[in-house]
Amino acid sequence: MSTATTSTTTWAAVAALGLVSAVVLVGGAMNLDASQVDGPPPGMASETGDAAPFTGASGGCTLSDPTGTGGCVTPAMAWTLAEINAHFGKQPASCWSARGGDPHSDHPKGRACDITFGTIGKYPDDADTARGWTLATWLVDNADALHVSYVIWQGHIWSTSRSKEGWRIYTGGGVYNPTGPTGGHYDHVHVSVLP
């Protein structure tokens, strides 16, 4: 069992009392060992509305990266980032990157963006962790509309191809340190879209 802990907002299930089928934020904080968490806090659901579906044509890295990297993004990735900003306000994000050490990365293909919560290289506080889970959950809830391939956040990954398994532990794919704040995607939500 890992000694690294992830900080999450304390959630209390009213459903446990048999009153209603809901989860409410009761404040406070607690640390959970990452091996004890299987994705978002219980009952976490996005309340930011549905994404407008991407109806454009699939394509390569043909549009200028709106995050200012100097690179490019696919039309589906540009649409997804625009929908994130429309539903959550403009978020600190970075999309295109050469990623020389990772030959499988979607960033140099223009199919991935990282949305930062807190400071890159540091574990986020409880409020940013909860905000990140809200975004990650919204992306999963809108995966079909946005052509999402996979989402990584807080040491967990969800993918369209294995959606029935839900959120799984993220191992770093043999490239990244999954226990570090950046390698484990604790400081940013990663979203990749389908080709």
What labels would you give this structure?
single chain, alpha+beta, disordered N terminus
Architecture overview:
This protein is of the alpha+beta class and 195 residues long. It has one domain (1-195). The chain is 17% helix and 25% strand. It is built from 3 helices and 10 strands; from the N terminus they run ββββαββααββββ. The protein has helices at residues 75-88, 126-141, 143-146, and strands spanning 5-13, 23-33, 63-64, 72-73, 93-94, 112-116, 148-153, 156-159, 168-169, 188-193. The strands form 3 sheets. It has a 6-stranded antiparallel sheet. Strands 1-2 form a two-stranded antiparallel sheet. A two-stranded antiparallel sheet has the order 3-4. Strand 8 and strand 9 (168-169) form a beta hairpin. It is globular. It starts with a strand and ends with a strand. Mean pLDDT is 81; it is low at 1-37.
How would you sum up this structure in a few lines?
By secondary structure, the protein is an alpha+beta fold. The protein has helices at residues 75-88, 126-141, 143-146; strands spanning 5-13, 23-33, 63-64, 72-73, 93-94, 112-116, 148-153, 156-159, 168-169, 188-193. It has one domain (1-195).
